[in-house]
Amino acid sequence: MGSCLSVTVARDRCYTRAFRAAGLRATDVTLGDGATVHIWVPRLPDRSRPALVLLHGFGATATWQWAPYLGPLLRAGFDLYVPDLLFFGGSSAPGPDRSESYQARCVVGALDAVGVGRFGLVGVSYGGFVGYRVAALYPGAVERVVLICAGVCLEERDLAAGLFVVSDVADAAGILLPQRPEKLRQLVRLTFCRPPRVMPTCFIRDYIQVMCRDYVKEKTELLHALIHDRKLPDLPRITQPTLIIWGEQDRVFPLELAHRLKRYLDENCQMVVIKNAGHAVNLEKPKEVCKHILAFFLDSGSPDIYNGHMVNLLSVLM
Which part of the chain is the AB hydrolase-1 domain (predicted)? Predict the structure, then answer.
């Protein structure tokens, strides 16, 4: 299907326009090892405003994931920095490293290049895995962390134990990287608590062609790196105040993983479970998710983060 007739391309352009209308601009940062990070940054950055980094999940790009959140977060007084993770959108890397630690180092390298030294962080699903590593590797840079349906405490043995709807990485890749309409329908049913009743095949094929055909090999390798030999005792405990947000009906990362992470981080962590929502809680309940994000950053007990913008945060919440 030509791009002039593509519903997916049209939507992608709408999201891009929304980012530009919100005062953001896209830039490409080339790192020392040749990796390129495509990142949206403020057109007119204000260093007196707190920086907030938003990391998308596996099935999205920066613009598709975060467009609905721009208005409330900007009105709250944040400067937003929204990268495409490697092999999503406009970001890529020539080397073989597929770990979330490498993703984390590339995110921080890009932030450093655009002049951001300290920031809060919100990560959805795979973006939460990367965000967790950012917080672990750079504790002096990250103020607070929000993890949305991010199963960072999963173990490889959980697949064989039946915790997930898939039993191995190959099955997971077949669903998370859909190349056929029936696989995309399966993914939507899996991630949404209330999936759309009608999903026309022509639209599904268009979406797959535009959004799911690039970097399939590299994304499959990301999944392997994420899960292979993963053990909870190897996971570092982050020290920043952390908020866990989870959809009660999540079938990708079951709610048990939220409770496991809460126990692992202990008193340093808060948890919110949102009813009538699945893994795509950020899309199904955006207003509720955004409310919890803002309330968490407002309740920091560290006024220097906000530099006088607490009034803005209060006005958004009320």
Answer: 50-286
